[in-house]
Design goal:
Structural class: alpha/beta
Number of domains: 2
Order of helices and strands: HEHEHEHEEEEHEHHEHEHEEHHEHHEH
Shape: globular
Number of strands: 14
CATH class of the largest domain: Alpha Beta
Number of helices: 14
Strand content: 15-25%
Length: 389
């Protein structure tokens, strides 16, 4: 089990992945060639990563999948840890890196900005065992062409104190002003949380016509903002720092609210309170990271070898357990140290995954295909400021 220090870094990376300004996607897809065949490794690999994705034993001597990769391939790894998706995009624009572990709010920017190349999945043998529900998605592909190899994923779950709260079946327990848990509710402190409200409204107010919680026109955004302003009156705690969420549950100040599975696991590990988690009937937002190769990669053969290595059953299992996420390779579930790990994180559960709306940066050009009528992340940021007051 990784240290809490590393967990903090990892969770901060996820939280910050959705911060920053929105970049508008280009009108047309840049023509970037796809690699046709593999050659000999170039001896070096420069990658941009989230904390916990490229461990070499320096943080924990027992956690190292980088040095074995170098020994097996001859590719020496130089990893640059980034704190936000905006930083990742900026670094990729320099052309000095071979690849990146991009979240959904960065991947399309890299694709349409011409910084990412399409991936020849035939050159990545382990791609065959990647969960089908992670392939050819809006955040990692264009026109049926993959621009990366899925790495790991998770949902923003509804966590609850199981001793005091009956298992919720709807997000109404955190959005309804008459919730019996008013004052004991926690909510994620970020503009991207607007998507959670929009997802709820998809089910509760279908007349709004919301088809994708990241594609909101002004009327739809206004409805989500109104819901969140009402919710603010019953929220006892907003969180973006994992320690704040843990402390709030353990002190009893929070009984339920938006969370991550790894946070629930940490709380249960402390054994002060029992917290369970669920994905209610309306679904959940979430995140899925993708390994992408730079269009200007100086070491493309090493990058392809890395994409195959990091998604191999043994290594994908190591990364998933260390970071606290579902592995993308279903065969990884046979390699986890904790044999119940994949059940806990729903790694093979396509039905569970289908309920998740993975983080995607809102853009004026609607991701649901309606055209240039949606609100972008800058407007979401302004809206979140008005919600928080």
């Amino acid at each position: 089990m990784r240290s809490k220090k590393i967990i903090v870094a990892s969770l901060a990376a996820i939280g910050l992945a959705v911060s920053g300004a929105t970049a508008t996607m280009a009108a047309s897809l840049p023509k970037v060639p796809m690699m046709k065949s593999l050659g000999k490794g170039e001896g070096s690999l420069n990658i941009i990563v989230w904390a916990g994705y490229a461990e070499n034993g320096s943080n924990d001597k027992t956690v190292d999948w980088v040095n074995p990769f170098t020994k097996a391939t001859g590719c020496k790894v130089n990893a640059k840890t980034a704190g936000t998706s905006d930083e990742m995009v900026s670094l990729m624009k320099t052309g000095g890196y071979d690849g990146v572990s991009a979240s959904g709010d960065a991947s399309l920017r890299l694709i349409y900005g011409g910084q990412a190349a399409p991936v020849n999945t035939a050159l990545v043998p382990n791609y065959a065992n990647i969960s089908s529900f992670l392939k050819n998605q809006k955040w990692n592909s264009v026109n049926g062409v993959m621009y990366g190899v899925p790495h790991g994923w998770g949902a923003n779950v509804l966590a609850y104190n199981s001793a005091k709260v009956k298992k919720p079946t709807s997000w109404s327990v955190v959005f309804d002003p008459k919730s019996p848990y008013a004052g004991k509710i926690t909510a994620y402190d970020s503009p991207i949380y607007i998507a959670d409200a929009a997802m709820y409204l998809m089910a509760k107010q279908p007349s709004l016509g919301i088809k994708n919680p990241y594609a909101l026109d002004q009327k739809q955004l206004d409805a989500a903002v109104a819901l969140l302003k009402g919710q603010k009156k019953i929220v006892g705690e907003y969180w973006s720092d994992y320690t704040k969420s843990v402390q709030s549950f353990e002190s009893g100040n929070t009984l339920l609210g938006s969370s991550w599975q790894v946070i629930a696991n940490i709380i249960n590990g402390d054994k002060k309170v029992k917290v369970d988690s669920t994905v209610p009937s309306e679904g959940a937002t979430g995140w899925s990271d993708t390994w992408m190769i730079s269009s200007k990669a100086k070491h493309p053969n090493c990058m392809y070898q890395w994409m195959n290595w990091i998604t191999s059953p043994k290594v994908n299992a190591q990364v998933a357990e260390y970071f606290g996420e579902a592995p993308s390779n279903q065969a990884a579930c046979t390699k986890t140290a904790d044999k119940t790990f994949c059940d806990t994180y729903h790694a093979k559960d396509a039905a569970y995954a289908s309920k998740i709306w993975y983080w995607t940066t809102p853009t004026a050009d609607c991701v649901d295909g309606r055209g240039n009528v949606c609100t972008d992340y800058a407007k979401w940021t302004q809206a979140w400021t008005s919600i928080k007051g």
